[in-house]
């Protein structure tokens, strides 16, 4: 069972996630976060030095969850693009937070370890060594391209017709995965 302090901190982070995803750093209000978390502003500041520190904590959580949501199997690299697509579609607040972070000039601190970017790069390099991915690609460049393919639906500058239609979404996902398959295909 969590201590009261841990429970309050978790409620603050949860409320902050919704507030920052909706309004960004500049538009978010600490008083709304505190009220939604059933915590005083003083308690909130006991855990986080200021609004920016709270924003960074939320951004770190969302970034970690984003990286953990999409694994990269060297035997099936295109499936990674599908996992990124699915996560962006199922958790639009994460994508909004990452967008707010970029707009505000934050440097992302992706998680280290099994789910972090280094593990994904290692898996991609392994796929290249196995002959499953064209070795002409620089792995860091390729991983960026694969992320972009997976995020293509979420990042499109216009609303999609049929964006709530499961068949349209499935076709868009399939197209992103097929594009990845073609990009990585050994020559």
Short description:
One of its GO terms (molecular function) is DNA binding. This protein is 70% helix and 0% strand.
Strand content: under 5%
Alpha-carbon Rg, integer = 19 Å
**What is the CATH first-level class name of the largest domain?**
Mainly Alpha
- As residue ranges, the low-confidence spans are none
Number of helices: 10
The averaged pLDDT comes out at 89
Shape: elongated
DNA-binding region: 29-48
Organism: Subtercola boreus
Protein name: HTH tetR-type domain-containing protein
Pfam family, one: TetR_C_21
Account of the 3D structure:
The protein is mainly alpha-helical. It folds into 2 domains: 1-48, Homeodomain-like (Arc Repressor Mutant, subunit A, Orthogonal Bundle); 55-184, Tetracycline Repressor, domain 2 (Orthogonal Bundle). Helices cover 70% and strands 0% of the residues. The chain has helices at residues 4-27, 30-36, 41-47, 51-69, 77-90, 92-103, 117-129, 139-150, 152-155, 166-184. α1 packs antiparallel against α2 (30-36) and α8 runs antiparallel to α10 (166-184). The mean pLDDT is 89.
Ordered list of secondary-structure elements with their pairings:
Elements lengths: L3 H24 L2 H7 L4 H7 L3 H19 L7 H14 L1 H12 L13 H13 L9 H12 L1 H4 L10 H19 L3
Features:
Homeodomain-like_sf; DNA binding; HTH_TetR; 187 residues; Arc Repressor Mutant, subunit A; Tetracycline Repressor, domain 2; mainly alpha; 2 domains; DNA-binding; HTH tetR-type domain-containing protein
